[in-house]
Design goal:
Length: 378
């Protein structure tokens, strides 16, 4: 069922899921357990994978999807939203085709690989009166919405600075097909760094200026996962990125993302510092976790969650999208937010290459805070 902006939603929107790899299971769950969505079709270039996905969804009781080609999904008038879970280089062309076919789109990150591609997707959504959203959506979880609510209420005074770290040894150690993680559109920046940047924008607002250094520690890496154990692969993009971020509100952020930290670390995921206290926020790679606050001259205190989606799993950004389409309100994990994060990441690369602080050309409104209390609805 296709919904235009502001149209009342009478039943779930039928979803077509493209790309049935490692991350897809969480999306099946998000669609299947939501009143807003019905998993209707699955597609994948790997033979047999779409059939396996449909069987799994049926077994879980999440729907009765059928294997279907991407072309057939676009031609099917009953399918209202496409979930694009393919590799980064396929995001733009598949997103664009779906938008031009009049489908809402929710895509894995990044939105696209270049600014030009990202802008074209936003324009195509507007031209076809549909919505485009993009991962990550983890900021919709209880921990991160609670942290956002605390900041908005002035719990630690005026935010002055923050740290945003997401680093590890890289997907060559665990992913069965890790090659694309080291190609354009991925790397530490656009595979994991986007989580930190998205949460930074959600908490502190848009980024105005960056100053950065990047490094590619190895020109090629050895795959350590079982399927391709010992195979070599080239590295196209930086794998260690460090940057200072100047937010439009005047706060300063310290950002680090890396695939090169093989021995582990003790860095905290996110901390926000204010004039009246500090806030510790859990990993942007998850929806839940402990939120702790320390006021000036006080002690660290773990806080109860006050906001957020209690059944959060990857894909709830798409649930939020169809709810937004039905009610006419702005979506939260929006294409505009994803474009600003893409622009920040590309500007960080350019800052490192030029050895200079650079302005971020785009801006965005912070996504709306979810309603007070813990909920399973949008």
């Amino acid at each position: 069922m296709h919904t235009e902006k502001g149209e009342e939603l009478m039943d779930g929107v039928k979803a077509g899921i493209v790309g049935c790899g490692m991350i897809a299971g969480a999306y099946y769950k998000a669609c299947g357990e939501s009143k807003w969505l019905i998993p209707a079709a699955c597609a994948d270039l790997v033979e047999g994978r779409a059939e396996e996905a449909c069987a799994m969804i049926k077994e879980k009781g999440w729907g009765e999807p059928v294997p279907m080609s991407f072309d057939d999904m676009l031609a099917n008038d009953e399918i209202g939203i496409i979930f694009n879970l393919t590799n980064p280089k396929a995001h733009y062309p598949l997103n664009l085709r779906a938008l031009e076919a009049g489908k809402h789109v929710y895509a894995e990150k990044p939105l696209a690989i270049t600014r030009e591609e990202g802008k074209e997707l936003l324009s195509a959504a507007r031209a076809n009166n549909v919505l485009i959203g993009c991962a990550p959506d983890t900021f919709l979880g209880p921990a991160h919405q609670t942290a956002r609510s605390l900041l908005d209420s002035g719990a630690i005074g005026e935010p002055t600075a923050g740290t945003f770290f997401f680093a590890g040894g890289g997907p060559d150690g665990y992913h069965q097909d890790p090659e694309f993680f080291f190609e354009a559109g991925a790397g530490a920046m656009f595979d994991v760094g986007v989580y930190s940047l998205t949460h930074a924008v959600n908490l502190l607002g848009p980024v105005k200026r960056v100053s950065a250094f990047t490094k590619k520690t190895w020109e090629e890496r050895t795959i350590l996962s079982k399927k391709k154990l010992g195979q070599k692969m080239p590295v196209e993009v930086p794998t260690h990125v460090s940057a200072s971020l100047e937010f439009e509100n005047g706060a300063i952020g310290t950002f680090l993302t890396s695939f090169d930290i093989k021995g582990g670390h003790h860095l905290l995921d996110i901390e926000i510092y204010g004039t009246d206290g500090s806030l510790q926020v859990p990993s942007p790679n998850g929806f839940d976790g402990d939120v702790s606050m320390r006021k000036v001259d006080g002690d660290w205190e773990k806080l109860e969650h006050t906001h957020g989606h209690t059944n959060a799993t990857r894909g709830i950004g798409g649930v939020d999208l169809v709810a937004a389409a039905a009610t006419g309100r702005p979506l939260r994990a929006s294409g505009e937010l994803a474009y600003h994060v893409l622009d920040i990441g590309l500007t960080i690369y350019e800052s490192a290459e030029k050895g200079a602080a650079l302005e971020v050309a785009s801006t965005v409104e912070r996504p709306a805070l979810m309603q007070e209390g813990l909920t399973e609805d949008f």
